[in-house]
DNA sequence: CGGCCTGTTGATGCTTATCAATTCCTGTGG
DNA sequence: CCACAGGAATTGATAAGCATCAACAGGCCG
C-alpha cells in the first residue's frame, strides 16, 4: 500500500524534527501565521514547542468521538478536519471545517459534542489541556489569538445558521460553490470540490440527491460546468453570486 | 404611557449611580457573575467602571443595524437582546439571544453582520472598542472570560446548526420548549414563552403557522397545556424530551 | 364596546426527502 | 494496458413536510 508507506515516512520525519533543535520546526511551520502561536516571539515559541506533540491522522480517521472526554487541543498543520454531530438515527450535520492553522478542542468542556474526523491526511500539533492553560496564563497573546479564531468560527457558524434556517437548496449550493471558489472568483475559473457530494449535503443540511440535482441545474443553465466529478468551472460568476443571494457581504471560509 | 415613565425613571437612577462612588454600582451588579468583568478584583473593577457607560434600550429598540460600523461592546445588565440577520427579501433568522451577563459587539469587526434588537427593556454597560482593548491588555482575565463566553456562544450556535440542518419542525419546537423550561424541568411545571410566535419561528427557521400547529399538536397529544398564549405547562416531560430527540445531552441556554 | 394585533386553523401547492434504478468514475487486479 | 468491480454520483418517480394564502378567533388596549 503506497499511501500508507508515505504517511509512515512523513510521521517519522516529523518525529525526528520534533526532537531536534527546539523551535526550529515551529519557525518553518506553514500553518503558523494563522495558528494560536502566531503572535509568539522566538523565546515563547521555544517554550510552546516544548509542550507540543506531533500527530498524524490518515484520511477518514477520527480524532475525537462525540461523547468522548477531551483533555487536549491541537492546531492543524496541514490537511483538513470535519466537525460533525449525528443524531441517534443517523442524520448527520457538519458543524464546521478546519484547515491549516485551525484549532480544535475546547478548554473547560468535559465531553465532546461532535465527532472530529480527518477529511484528508492531516498533521496536528497537539497539546494537553493543562499545558495549554498554563502556557496561556504566562502568554496572554495566545488567548488573544484564540479569541480571534473563536470569534471567526462563531461568525462562520452564524453564517450557516442563516443558510440552514432560511436559504433554499439552490441558494445553499450556490453559496457553497462561492465558498469553494474562495476570494479569487473569476469567469471560467477552474476550482475543485474539497468535499464529496455526501459531505456537501451534510454541510448544507440537504441530501446527496438534492445537491446533485442543484449542481445539474446550475450546469444546465450554463452557470457552471462540471468537467469531472471533483472539479467545477464557473462560467458565470455574477449569476452564481446572484443565486447565492442572502446579503452581498457573506464571504466566509 | 406607564411603561415609558418607568423606563425613564430607571434610566435616571442608573445615571445618578453611574456618577457616584466608583465601583460601588459594579459591586452590586446583578449580571456581574456571568459578565466579562466577573474575574476582576476590586481595584481592576474600579478602573473598568471608569470606561463604562450606562445605557437603556426600550423593548423593540435597535442597538445595532446590520451593516453598521461598530466600534463598541456592551454587557447586558438586565433584559434581553436578539441578534438577527435578514435577507434582502425579508426572510429573517435569529442568530442568538443574549440575557444578563451576555456580551455584544466584536472587536476587529468593521461592520455588523446582524441586527441587535431589544426584546425587552434592557440595561447595558457599554464600552468603546479602544477602551476595552486597552483594558484587556492590562487585565488578561477579561480576555479569558470573553473567550469562555464566545466558546459558549459557539456551542449554542452549533447546537442550532444541528437543529436547523437536520431536525423536523416537531423536534425543533420540542427542543425550544425544553430550552424555555430550563434545567428545572418537571411534571406540571408552569413556564412562560419569552418570545412571540414570530420570534420562535425566526429562531427555529420555520413559519409562525408551523410553530402554532406544532404547539397545537403537542397540546392535543397531552404533552403540554397552553392555559394562556404566553405560558405553557409541561404535563409529560419525558415525552417532550423524547420528541426533542437529537442527542440526550443538548441543554443549552 | 370596538378596533387591532397576535395567534389559530384550514386548504392547497411547492420544495425537498425518500426510494429505486442506472450510469459514471476510480482504482485494482489480471 | 485493459477489463472489471465497487463505490460515488446522477436521474427518475413518488410522497412527506412545510410554506403559503386566506379566513377566523381571541385578548388587550383604547
Structure characterization notes:
The structure is a homodimer of 253-residue chains. Chain A has 253 residues and is an alpha+beta fold. Helix content of chain A is 43%, strand content 20%. The first copy, chain A, is built from 9 helices and 11 strands. Chain A has helices at 2-19, 24-27, 42-50, 129-138, 140-166, 169-181, 197-204, 208-220, 237-244, and strands at 53-57, 62-64, 72-78, 81-86, 92-98, 103-104, 115-118, 122-128, 189-192, 224-225, 231-234. In chain A, the strands form 3 sheets. Chain A has a 4-stranded antiparallel sheet with strand order 1-8-3-6. In chain A, strands 2-7-4-5 form a 4-stranded antiparallel sheet. The first copy, chain A, has a 3-stranded antiparallel sheet with strand order 9-11-10. In chain A, helix 4 crosses helix 5, helix 6 crosses helix 9 (237-244) and helix 7 crosses helix 8. The longest helix of chain A is centred in the middle third of the chain and has 27 residues, at 140-166. Chain A is globular. The interface between A and B is large, with 46 and 47 residues. Chain A binds a DNA duplex (30 and 30 nucleotides) through helix 8.
